[in-house]
Amino acid sequence: MYALFLEMTDADYVKSKINVEPSGEAFNSDRLAQDGRPFNPLINQGAIACCSLAAPMESSSQRYQKIVNLVSSCATRSLPLNTKVFQSEARTGYQNQKISQALRNSRCIETDYDRDEGLQAYFMGCSIDVDAKELAVIGATIANKGKNPKTKKQVIEQEHAQSVCSVMMSCGMYNGAGNWMMDVGLPAKSGVSGCILAVVPGICGIALFSPKLNEHGNSVRGIEACRLLSTQLNLHVLKKKEKNSSIMGSRFSSGSQMARSTLRSAMGMTEASKPSEDRSGSVSRGKKKAWEPNV
Predict the structure, then answer these.
(1) Which residues, including other chains, have CB under 8 Å from residue 231's CB and lie 6 or more apart?
(2) DSSP class of residue 178?
(3) How buried is residue 77: exposed, middle or buried, by Cβ count under 10 Å (0-12/13-18/19+)?
(4) Which of 9, 28, 42 has its CA nearest to residue 189?
(5) Which of 52, 136, 192, 234 is deepest in the core (most CB within 10 A)?
(6) Do domains 2-125 and 131-284 have the same CATH topology?
(7) What are the start and end residues of every segment in region (Disordered) (predicted)?
């Protein structure tokens, strides 16, 4: 949603409407920054603002179509709307309604129409079905400066992909972002479905799904799996890489014994992926067992 907002307007306007700082609040908090802007685009208030501001005076269906077109272009296939999840969100999303009204009260959202249609578009955007493999391709597109590595299409402008990646580094793991950067050191975005999307800039995207969450709303096993992968493959963005070394060989492939062993130990072989709602922006439906890597 943040990438779409950047693509449809310009970076200066986006920054005038949405901060890029950690909130220190729960992902679904309705407390805005002192200037009335959302703290960042990767929590509910920021995502709702993106949906409300990216296509002013357009209907919720038109806004949603722009969202799903962009996400589908990153994932390399047309992604479907999970109607049951959308209906549930629209029926019970009282906290998100409260956030939307707070954004209207602060004049971040400028019209009642954009408030209402933007919120419905947000609910639909939260109800897109995507599996772990497709999510990894989305991450790879961000890692590849906005160019889908499979289709070779420039889906997101390079500068905008860099902006998305930058905010993922500081805000993508909710209030666990600091420990994540210390232990894993990769741009990432988590969702309360139990998914984690991590980006290795210039290399790949990594997607994991395991629904047990910690107090911040992040996947417990997903964090541990990413920590082990980062340590064993030397992925931390601030760590010096060995001269002439490459992580693109067999030791980093999804079929490698090391990668499988790492994720087995972190996530457990017996846990199966299943569809689950991700209120932060997507629905992840892992088709593979949770310990199998998608990179």
Answers:
(1) none
(2) H
(3) exposed
(4) 42
(5) 52
(6) yes
(7) 246-295
Helix axes 60-75, 132-143, angle to 10 degrees: 80
222 sits in which H/E element: helix 220-233
User: Using CA atoms, how far apart are residues 150 and 198, in angstroms rounded to an integer?
Assistant: 18
What residue ranges do the domains of the chain occupy?
2-125, 131-284
Nearest to 171 by CA among 156, 187, 160, 158: 187
**DSSP-assigned states of every residue in 237-260:** TTSPPPTT--SSSGGGSTT-HHHH
pLDDT tens digits, residue range 149-193? 999 999 999 999 999 999 999 999 999 999 999 999 999 999 988
**Tokens 């709602």 sit on residue:** 277
Mean pLDDT confidence for 232-243? 83
Instruction: Enter the DSSP assignment of 267.
Output: H
Q: Which helix (H) or strand (E) holds 188?
A: strand 188-190
d(CA 74, CA 141): 6
Q: Using CB atoms within 10 Å of the CB of residue 212, give its burial: 0 to 12 exposed, 13 to 18 middle, 19+ buried.
A: exposed
Cβ-based burial of 94 (10 A; exposed 0-12, middle 13-18, buried ≥19): exposed
At position 95, the amino acid (one-letter code) is Q
38: Cα separation from own chain's centroid: 17
pLDDT digits (tens, 9 = 90+) for 55-111: 999 999 999 999 999 999 999 999 999 999 999 999 999 999 999 999 999 999 999
CA 64 and chain centroid, separation? 16
